[in-house]
Amino acid sequence: MLASMNDDDEVRTERRNVTPLPIFITSLVQQWLLEDAPSFDFSSSVVADRLATGILWQKSSGVVAGRPFFDAVFEALGCQVVWNRTIDGIGEVEGQFWTDADVSEAGGKRALATVRGPARRLLQGERTALNALSRCSGVATRARQFQLLCREHHWAGTIAGTRKTTPGFRLVEKYGMQLGGADMHRVDLSGMVMLKDNHLACIGLELNRPADDALVIREAVRRARACAGFSVKIEVECSSEASALAAIAAGADVIMLDNMDPSTFCRTAERLRQQTNGTQAHRYLIEASGGISLETAPAYMCAAADIISVSLSQGYGCVDFSLKISFTDP
């Protein structure tokens, strides 16, 4: 079933406009292709190098995500990709959710794009392109599931994907989060300062104080601000109400209440709001984090919470795609 045209389509279009710079995609794709064929490709060599056409099929439910990477693989191999317009004219396929339960599509699948080029090149790029598309779509689909939970529970906060990404594949997974409707959180270490328990523990050792001591937290935030400047936000991981209040007083922009059960989190977040209401405390955000799943997320969606961070790039299911190749008539 295709989503109807509404405000969500405008948001989807805006999110689709946020794509990695081509130079980074090209570099990434080159690494993938070299990994797959660092010397010879014996399998493709047995095929006549005639012009061929490949049809990209979506075979399972999910959000389509990863077109920039799919296209770049075949462009690097001298092939051309043409994407189909969606059913009922609802904009681009990229970012769109489709379910294989839609009986209007023959055989529970639908054609998304056509790839044309030399047969050997199509074969060389096939698996690499499908892997990227399948996994990116899986992350986007998981992000969409969390967004649907937010709507169901009338929670206006933000779902954010953590930095627990696959080494060498972060760009794809973060793009999938973005297209699925989640926030990418910090894309890399330069995106935001996050002072976690180990950072605080190290400074605590220097000062001979516990990691959650107010003086340690204040010193950590001070150092972070001195290093990163005014334009970079600072987040502090807190395990208690007292450490959270210390982080707020120190000027942290985001307070992460980590590894708290839902009731403790909501109670702590509400008390923080109450204790800083009407004071000179700056505006801060409260984030829930630590092992939150689709099943437990609704319990964290309280009025005092701004952000729920989850590991969108771990444990997701891949969306099934295939590329069926045939020779192009001369």
From TrEMBL:
<protein>
    <recommendedName>
        <fullName>Nicotinate-nucleotide pyrophosphorylase [carboxylating]</fullName>
        <ecNumber>2.4.2.19</ecNumber>
    </recommendedName>
</protein>
<keyword id="KW-0328">Glycosyltransferase</keyword>
<comment type="pathway">
    <text>Cofactor biosynthesis; NAD(+) biosynthesis; nicotinate D-ribonucleotide from quinolinate: step 1/1.</text>
</comment>
<dbReference type="GO" id="GO:0004514">
    <property type="term" value="F:nicotinate-nucleotide diphosphorylase (carboxylating) activity"/>
</dbReference>
<dbReference type="GO" id="GO:0034213">
    <property type="term" value="P:quinolinate catabolic process"/>
</dbReference>
<dbReference type="Pfam" id="PF02749">
    <property type="entry name" value="QRPTase_N"/>
</dbReference>
<feature type="domain" description="Quinolinate phosphoribosyl transferase C-terminal">
    <location>
        <begin position="139"/>
        <end position="324"/>
    </location>
</feature>
<dbReference type="InterPro" id="IPR004393">
    <property type="entry name" value="NadC"/>
</dbReference>
<dbReference type="Pfam" id="PF01729">
    <property type="entry name" value="QRPTase_C"/>
</dbReference>
<comment type="similarity">
    <text>Belongs to the NadC/ModD family.</text>
</comment>
<comment type="function">
    <text>Involved in the catabolism of quinolinic acid (QA).</text>
</comment>
<dbReference type="InterPro" id="IPR022412">
    <property type="entry name" value="Quinolinate_PRibosylTrfase_N"/>
</dbReference>
<dbReference type="InterPro" id="IPR037128">
    <property type="entry name" value="Quinolinate_PRibosylTase_N_sf"/>
</dbReference>
<keyword id="KW-0662">Pyridine nucleotide biosynthesis</keyword>
<comment type="subunit">
    <text>Hexamer formed by 3 homodimers.</text>
</comment>
<feature type="domain" description="Quinolinate phosphoribosyl transferase N-terminal">
    <location>
        <begin position="48"/>
        <end position="137"/>
    </location>
</feature>
<dbReference type="GO" id="GO:0009507">
    <property type="term" value="C:chloroplast"/>
</dbReference>
<keyword id="KW-0808">Transferase</keyword>
<dbReference type="InterPro" id="IPR036068">
    <property type="entry name" value="Nicotinate_pribotase-like_C"/>
</dbReference>
<dbReference type="GO" id="GO:0009435">
    <property type="term" value="P:NAD+ biosynthetic process"/>
</dbReference>
<dbReference type="InterPro" id="IPR013785">
    <property type="entry name" value="Aldolase_TIM"/>
</dbReference>
<dbReference type="InterPro" id="IPR002638">
    <property type="entry name" value="Quinolinate_PRibosylTrfase_C"/>
</dbReference>
<dbReference type="InterPro" id="IPR027277">
    <property type="entry name" value="NadC/ModD"/>
</dbReference>
